[in-house]
């Protein structure tokens, strides 16, 4: 999951996007990665994804887990895929392409809202 997600780096952001050809928003990106690596169809929005799988504490994170953030003054409004060493890959905004960010950055650290592990058994 994490390696495929990283392979999509530099794919442009597109609001409502869910394709590597046209671009992704954050949840479209995560949905695409899980469908194309594990055959798991996740819900379309980050809020709906946050109700799927097993909740995790930050110390339990493994590559491929979903990490959630409160952005735009909305709870669970952003999702990314954990890649290890307190970093995650995500589709951040219309001004940027898919990229890796650090959860240690003040912006992301202050907005962290939890994590989930998705398995085929969920």
Which percent bin holds the helix content? 10-25%
Give the topology string: H per helix, E per strand.
Answer: HEEHHEEEEEHE
How much of the polypeptide forms β-strand, as a percent range? Answer: 25-35%
Number of E-type strands: 8
Main β-sheet, spatial strand arrangement: 3-8-4-5-6-7
Average per-residue pLDDT, rounded, comes to 95
Query: In this structure, how is the largest beta sheet organized?
Result: 6 strands, antiparallel
Q: Judging from the principal axes of the Cα atoms, what is the shape?
A: globular
Number of helices: 4
Q: Unreliable segments (pLDDT under 50, ≥5 consecutive)?
A: none
**What is the gyration radius calculated from CA atoms?**
13 Å
Which tags fit this structure?
alpha+beta, 4 helices, 122 residues, 8 strands
Characterization of this structure:
- This protein has 122 residues and is of the alpha+beta class.
- The protein has helices at 2-7, 26-38, 46-49, 106-111, and strands at 18-19, 23-24, 54-56, 66-71, 74-84, 87-90, 99-102, 112-117.
- It has a 6-stranded antiparallel sheet.
- The longest helix has 13 residues, at 26-38.
- 34% of the residues are buried.
- The mean pLDDT is 95.
């Amino acid at each position: 999951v994490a390696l495929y997600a990283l392979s999509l780096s530099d794919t442009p952001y597109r609001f409502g996007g869910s394709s590597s050809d046209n671009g992704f928003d954050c949840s479209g990106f995560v949905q695409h990665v899980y469908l194309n690596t594990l055959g798991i169809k996740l819900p379309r929005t980050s809020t709906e994804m946050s109700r799927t799988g097993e909740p995790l504490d930050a110390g339990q994170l493994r590559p491929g887990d979903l990490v959630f953030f409160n952005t735009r003054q909305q709870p669970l409004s952003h999702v990314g895929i954990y890649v290890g060493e307190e970093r995650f890959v995500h589709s951040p905004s219309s001004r940027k392409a898919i990229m890796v960010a650090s959860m240690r950055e003040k912006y992301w650290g202050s907005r962290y809202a939890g994590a989930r592990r998705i398995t085929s058994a969920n």
